[in-house]
Amino acid sequence: MKLKISTDDAHILKNICGSNNENLKIIEDKYHIILSLNANILSFENEELKDELEKLFNFLVNVSLLDIHIKSRDINYYINLIKSGEENRFIEYLKNKKPVCFTYSNKPIFAKTLKQNEYIEKLKIRDLIYAIGSAGSGKTYLAVCFAASELKKNNIKRIILTRPAVEAGESLGFLPGDLKEKVDPYLKPLYDALYDMFGLDQTNQMIEKGAIEIAPLAYMRGRTLDDAIIILDEAQNATLDQLKMFLTRLGVNSKMILTGDLSQIDLPKTKTSGLRLAIDITRDLRGVEVINFEKMDVIRHPLVSQIIDRFEKIEKEV
After folding, report:
1. With bands split at pLDDT 50, 70 and 90, how would you rate the model's confidence at 21?
2. Hey, which residues does 244 pair with through a beta bridge?
3. Helix (H) or strand (E) holding 128
4. For residues 262 and 137, is the Cβ–Cβ distance under 8 A?
5. Contacts for 42-50: CB closer than 8 Å, 24+ residues apart
6. Which range (39-43, 148-152, 303-307) has the least confidence?
7. Distance of alpha carbon 135 from its chain centroid, rounded?
8. HSE, side-chain direction, 13 A CA sphere, residue 308
9. Residue 304 in contact with residue 133, Cβ under 8 Å?
């Protein structure tokens, strides 16, 4: 079976194929076929795939025409866009996309999927946002990016980042060192995102001045948090009582973002995650939004989404 790709531009074809044909190999694995590309003629054996592959490669041409470098980690998402019929909507997004923020090195950060873009748009207009999904979907990183952008614009006075510090109920006393030394290992993903946004030195200065606060969830009790964006990471490891305490800290001119993965609950068997219950209790309130990321939104190494698929399959069989 032969298919003519809608361009003969060598640079576009190279972008589509990827370094050492890495992108083509991912497509082969996804469809269980062998592809051969000679100039702009694609050869393969399964005739039933002709229409879908034609849509896919025409879509890849259109992405390339927007001067976007096609990375191997994007291919699975692009294939899923074709399967869901969302490819045209994604092209429109690419044509009009705006950066969420800029990193310390002035690199623009963009939403990489339609769901990520929806997430950013809801962050602008909602006061309480639940972002639920697997690792690699960008839910925490984009939340920190958005918060950093708002702080730089002086729309808020501080960023507060928190996390259930110890999965066994935040029993920090037995750990050596002061509070910072005790909780820092649990908060490293949040520090990493901050360093991307502000750099190491500026981040530390902002922490010293109180413009950025990083603390375990237990230390939110008894406070009212005004003029802030408050991000609770790994919210699936909080109990319902902890979430009630946290949610009622929301102050004037503030937003709360709760990120979590309901398939990765690390609480002991004697404790129940409160995240799903908290969502059910609050989701119909004005100003609340729930964003559910899917496997297709995982933008990491191409193997990550396949690993998630395998584990989900095994968990369903148990």
Report:
1. very high
2. none
3. strand 128-132
4. no
5. 42/2, 42/3, 42/4, 42/5, 43/1, 43/2, 43/3, 44/1, 44/3, 45/1, 46/1, 47/1, 50/1, 50/3
6. 303-307
7. 7
8. 19
9. no
